[in-house]
Amino acid sequence: MSLLRKAALAGAASALALAASAVPAVAQPAQPPAGGDWVLVASSGDFTAMGSWNKSTSYGKTAGTISMTKADGWVEDTAADSYCAQVVIEWFGTNGKYDADYSPQACPKGDRDTFAKAAGDSTHWTATGYAVWMQKV
After folding, report:
1. How far apart are CA 8 and CA 99, in angstroms?
2. Phi, then psi, of 2 in degrees rounded to 5
3. For 86, left (φ over 0), alpha (ψ -120 to 50), or beta?
4. For 29-76, how does the pLDDT look when each residue is reduced to its tens digit (9 = 90+)?
5. 125 near 97, Cβ under 8 Å?
6. In sequence order, which residues have a C-beta less than 8 Å from that of residue 45 and are 6 or more positions away?
């Protein structure tokens, strides 16, 4: 390999390492939050979700769209089991920012509720990651 080619490859590797170190680490949930019957519906690490989700479980259904600033969707109770279905969106940001938003609880069976949520509470911000869960409550 020529000296010029080696230098070019070394420069490219250095640039990639520098770019990778500039990306802030985003805390993603390793497991569902404590309590309840949780199902991961979509996350920023799930490249098949492409900013939307459509999920059915034994107790409920949900569908929606999400970006790093807002989420819109619906949740429906599909089981006559005296429980409700609910969506929980976890937003992750730089410097440890975190927000969790809860949809209305859909129940009894057949009830469908819509929701619109944004990252942050009174002051909205752009998230660097998210996780969308459905739970039985």
Report:
1. 44
2. -70, 155
3. beta
4. 545 666 667 888 888 875 444 588 999 999 999 999 998 899 999 999
5. yes
6. 28, 129
